[in-house]
Amino acid sequence: MSFATSALSRIRLAAVSGRTRLLSTPWNRLPYSGGAATFGAIPSVIHSAAAKEEPNRDSTTVTSTSTDPSTDHKDKKRRMSSSSTSAIIASASAILTTASIASSSSPTDTRHFSTMPPVAQEPHHSKVVIIGSGPAGHTAAVYLARANLKPVMFEGMMANGFAPGGQLTTTTDVENYPGFPEGIMGGEMMDKFREQSIRFGTVIHTETIGKVDLTSQPFKLWREGQEGSEHPTDTANSVIIATGASAKRMNLPGEETYWQAGISACAVCDGAVPIFRNKPLAVVGGGDSAAEEAVYLTKYASHVYVLVRRDKLRASKVMANRLLSHPKVTVLFNTVPVEAKGDGKLLKSLVLQDTVTKETRTMDANGLFYAIGHIPATSLFKGQLDLDEDGYIKTIPGSTLTNIPGVFAAGDVQDKRYRQAVTSAGTGCMAALDSERWLEEHYPDQH
Ligand code: FAD
Ligand code: NDP
């Protein structure tokens, strides 16, 4: 099966398996419009991969052949209008057709895409591999590439439900990342991160790492689809893990309709949006995140209701006190939302249920913020790396060092407290510097 075919099947598979759930949500509608970016990279992947098939591992990294500006323009328009899985698949098929007749190499588009390397050949060895392509991964890539370490990044193919570029590809305006005084669309920002990584020589594979063996040097990695092989597809002396996390959702009736149209999982990211100004808002959860987010939202809301499923908060004493004493906050114990309702465009109210009596009632609410925990993308590393009780990678405080020398973790995968683009980028920088120093000490001849 050619890569082009297998890529398309994987998109379809992902869609069927529900991993593309964000696609069917109204990202392209008020008040957010960045949803199409969720799949932004995929048509290009198919395009470039279809344009050139590779006979062996050593030429697995190929250069995209897209030079026709009208094709690029059409691609962009196609992406912006794709709000359903079938539209994406249709777009991908159309691009495949275009790609099959494209022939010239582009000196400007330096994206690197790869076919799956044949099994049982020498694995491709790098000094350092980065797994993940959010702000943490790309910041690490820029630093490592500028240090001449020739980093190789696996940006993922809908890994953990996200397109290459990570969580920010699922949002619209990012207004709290320094350097963009007017704000910037999440997808556009991640395109810029990617360009910068490539500019300094990072090789990016649009593939997911499906298995790792971190027990001995060099570390062994298997690309998705090749996990069954005895031989790894790739090896590296150092690995930076930047696979991110995803917010837990409740899958309420109405959630798909009002996701990012009233329902959000990040108050700090979305709380300042005009639709929430002077309106009643609800936060669900009873932990520190819920407390922090609820207090944060009081700056914008007419009132904040915190929905706690038990008769007590899980939050620390200090956070709980802050919450309970705030004049603009009411904590509703033994309460969960069971349905989100609105006018079809924006959330207007919630159906609440008393968890003890099971009685239901309706409450006006223009916003519902989930603060019920996150799931770090660490299943790949279970049993090899030290994880905390919630599955986050444990790092030595003040560094990105894990329990395995040469393996570093950055971004949301190791941070359950801040979970911001800028903090992820910051730890990505730290991981690159930690990795560089470690390689210098242990593999000085390769420097
Ligand atoms: P992520 O962004 O999570 O990216 C990880 C990437 O790694 C993903 O692309 C994933 O597919 C890939 N990956 C995972 N596993 C593998 C694998 N096995 N192989 C290869 N690749 C893999 N923060 C802000 O500062 N400001 C905001 O305005 C803001 N808005 C947000 C809006 C939304 C809707 C969401 C969900 C988050 C928002 N955030 C915001 C938070 C911010 O997006 C995250 O803190 C940040 O993206 C985390 O970066 P990261 O590099 O750790 O990983
Ligand atoms: P937690 O897991 O601590 O809390 C999750 C909360 O959501 C709990 O109250 C839980 O209820 C509730 N919950 C979970 N699932 C559901 C559901 N389906 N329906 C309704 N409620 C649900 O997550 P946090 O994100 O709050 O915190 C994660 C970690 O980060 C903690 O260690 C926390 O201390 C830390 N943190 C610290 C901060 C700070 O110090 N400023 C800020 C933010 C986080 P129940 O209690 O019944 O299980």
Can you walk through the features of this model?
The chain has 447 residues and is an alpha/beta fold. It folds into three domains: 3-113; 124-246 and 377-446, 3-Layer(bba) Sandwich (FAD/NAD(P)-binding domain), CATH 3.50.50; 255-372, FAD/NAD(P)-binding domain. 29% of the residues lie in helices and 21% in strands. The protein is built from eleven helices and 21 strands. The protein has helices spanning 3-17, 42-51, 69-81, 85-101, 135-146, 186-199, 255-258, 267-270, 288-297, 317-324, 421-442, and strands at residues 61-63, 112-114, 124-131, 152-154, 173-174, 184-185, 203-205, 209-213, 219-223, 234-241, 245-247, 263-264, 280-284, 303-307, 329-332, 335-342, 347-354, 360-364, 367-370, 374-376, 407-409. The strands form six sheets. Strands 3, 4, 7, 8, 9, 10 and 21 form a seven-stranded mixed beta sheet that branches. A five-stranded parallel beta sheet has the order 12-19-13-14-15, covered by helices on one side. Strand 8 (209-213) and strand 9 (219-223) form a beta hairpin. The longest helix is centred in the C-terminal third of the chain and has 22 residues, at 421-442. The relative contact order is 0.13. Residues 1-113 have low confidence and may be disordered. The structure holds flavin-adenine dinucleotide and NADPH dihydro-nicotinamide-adenine-dinucleotide phosphate. The site of flavin-adenine dinucleotide (FAD) has 41 residues, from helix 5 and helix 11. Its EC number is 1.8.1.9. Its cofactor is FAD. Pfam families: Pyr_redox_2.
